[in-house]
UniProtKB/TrEMBL annotation:
<dbReference type="GO" id="GO:0003942">
    <property type="term" value="F:N-acetyl-gamma-glutamyl-phosphate reductase activity"/>
</dbReference>
<dbReference type="InterPro" id="IPR023013">
    <property type="entry name" value="AGPR_AS"/>
</dbReference>
<keyword id="KW-0055">Arginine biosynthesis</keyword>
<dbReference type="InterPro" id="IPR050085">
    <property type="entry name" value="AGPR"/>
</dbReference>
<dbReference type="InterPro" id="IPR000534">
    <property type="entry name" value="Semialdehyde_DH_NAD-bd"/>
</dbReference>
<protein>
    <recommendedName>
        <fullName>Probable N-acetyl-gamma-glutamyl-phosphate reductase, chloroplastic</fullName>
        <ecNumber>1.2.1.38</ecNumber>
    </recommendedName>
</protein>
<feature type="domain" description="Semialdehyde dehydrogenase NAD-binding">
    <location>
        <begin position="51"/>
        <end position="188"/>
    </location>
</feature>
<dbReference type="InterPro" id="IPR000706">
    <property type="entry name" value="AGPR_type-1"/>
</dbReference>
<dbReference type="GO" id="GO:0006526">
    <property type="term" value="P:L-arginine biosynthetic process"/>
</dbReference>
<dbReference type="GO" id="GO:0070401">
    <property type="term" value="F:NADP+ binding"/>
</dbReference>
<comment type="similarity">
    <text>Belongs to the NAGSA dehydrogenase family. Type 1 subfamily.</text>
</comment>
<dbReference type="Pfam" id="PF22698">
    <property type="entry name" value="Semialdhyde_dhC_1"/>
</dbReference>
<feature type="active site">
    <location>
        <position position="196"/>
    </location>
</feature>
<dbReference type="GO" id="GO:0051287">
    <property type="term" value="F:NAD binding"/>
</dbReference>
<keyword id="KW-0028">Amino-acid biosynthesis</keyword>
<keyword id="KW-0560">Oxidoreductase</keyword>
<dbReference type="Pfam" id="PF01118">
    <property type="entry name" value="Semialdhyde_dh"/>
</dbReference>
């Protein structure tokens, strides 16, 4: 019994121990995650618990992994790293996570990876490949950066402008677009989690290209992202004054998600696909929309495209084809792992407009990463991911 005369079961993950309630009012917090486990995390580790490291836990995708894991009964965060924020408790970096029982942030050099079973790498591009190289072989790794997404190392070096530091690891990395590569992901040790734009584009296009319902040429993508897509590190172009009340195109003709997207579409087409892609930064914190203009194959109709996507994703929990005419909105996926898609007739005969929306931090990053680790560890893919969208 706690001082308030009330005890409750720890809400965080698989802990079945009694915990002390922090609030005076039982009614106010009953059944909600406003309880703090009084045990040390090492006491809670049991055989069924998977010990998780979050590298880069003080960034946006790291924070999102932590938020999602609060609802995961088997994954227990035992290691969290940072650079500028190393040494700080998570509550001082992210007060919204203050009620979770999490270890303090430490420098990666001080991490003991033998006490961890799996890691989410939420680190900047280029740093990940060096760090992963030094990790023990028993670890399952989901890398959220772009370091292992491009199979062709020379293409990586061309688009990222530097030599790849772990080309051997690239060979074993599996590209983690879950709904498309599930079987390989299940057996992978290292998964390269897709970029947010490539996720929102490939999910609708891959099934259509595979079924020869659209031409794998003349594909035009106009995409928009919320500002969290650029990470939490301060940058001049991300200042409120630069982003608010405006729209900023960037990476015009040369965004690094072009080769990643073309790689996936080319695999689907079994021939080289090139795309026109222009991303935009828009004044919202999270969310992403890709509006995609395609040429239908001779004889194909909007109904054929709609039917194919509905059929392809009928057993998928997270990819949803909307009813005819319903417009996907970023508000309808905010905070969730869903991708909503729909197909519309273009005024130009023979062409179609496809709209796809995701939350860049969830299906576009941490949610898909958790979906992948679930698959790799043999858990139901939706574990910890059953958040309804936050609307409006
Ligand atoms: N944001 C998004 O929507 C998406 C991001 N991604 C990718 O995920 C990765 C993480 O992105 P995001 O969370 O947005 O980035 P942030 O900039 O928000 O966070 C980066 C994290 O990495 C740490 N870090 C910075 N430099 C180093 C270093 N040299 N060595 C070790 N750790 C370091 C930071 O620590 P500290 O804060 O202490 O400096 C922080 O914890 C990136 O590769 C990004 O491209 C992928 C899909 C979508
Ligand atoms: C708004 C914004 O800046 N977005 C990022 C994309 C974030 C993402 O998906 O992915 P990766 O960085 O992991 O490739 C960009 O355009 O570079």
């Amino acid at each position: 019994m706690s001082a308030t005369g009330f005890s409750s079961t720890c809400f965080n993950r698989s802990c079945s121990w009694k915990v002390e309630k922090l609030s005076k009012s039982k009614k106010q917090h009953e059944g909600k995650p406003f309880v703090k486990c009084s045990m040390r995390s090492s006491d809670r580790t049991s055989q069924s618990t998977v010990r998780i490291g979050v590298l880069g836990a003080s960034g946006y995708t790291g924070a999102e992994v932590l938020r999602l894991l609060a609802n995961h009964p088997q994954f227990e965060v035992t290691l969290m790293t940072a650079v500028r924020k190393a040494g700080e408790p998570i509550a001082s970096v992210f007060p919204h996570l203050a009620t979770q029982n999490l270890p303090d942030l430490i420098a990666i050099e001080d991490a003991n990876f033998s006490d961890v079973d799996a890691v989410f790498c939420c680190l900047p591009h280029g740093t990940t490949q060096e760090i992963i190289k030094g990790l023990p072989m028993h670890l399952k790794i989901v890398d959220l950066s772009a370091d292992f997404r491009l199979r062709d190392i020379s293409e990586y070096e061309e688009w990222y402008g530097k030599p790849h530091k772990a080309p051997d690891l690239q060979k074993e990395a599996v590209y983690g677009l879950t709904e498309i590569s599930r079987e390989e992901i299940k057996n992978a040790r290292l998964v390269a989690n897709p970029g947010c734009y490539p996720t929102s584009i490939q999910l609708p296009l891959v099934p259509l290209i595979k079924a020869n319902l659209i031409e794998a040429k003349n594909i035009i993508i106009d995409a928009k992202s919320g500002v969290s897509g650029a990470g939490r590190s301060p940058k001049e172009n991300l200042l409120y004054t630069e982003v608010a009340e405006g729209i900023n195109s960037y990476g015009v003709t040369r965004h690094r998600h072009v080769p990643e997207t073309e790689q996936g579409l080319s695999d689907a087409a079994r021939s080289r696909v090139t795309i026109s892609f222009t991303p935009h930064l828009i004044p919202m914190s999270r969310g992403m929309q890709s509006t995609i203009y395609v040429e239908m194959a001779p004889g194909a109709s909007i109904e054929d495209l709609h039917q194919r996507l509905g059929q392809f994703y009928k057993d998928e929990e997270f990819v949803i084809l909307l009813e005819n005419g319903v417009i996907p909105r970023t508000h309808s996926v905010r905070g969730s792992n869903y991708c909503l898609i729909n197909v519309f007739p273009d005024r130009i005969p023979g062409r179609a407009i496809i709209i796809s929306v995701i939350d860049n931090l969830v299906k576009g990053a941490s949610g898909q990463a958790l979906q992948n680790l679930n698959a790799m560890m043999g858990f139901p893919e939706n574990t910890g991911l059953q958040y309804q969208p936050l609307f409006p």
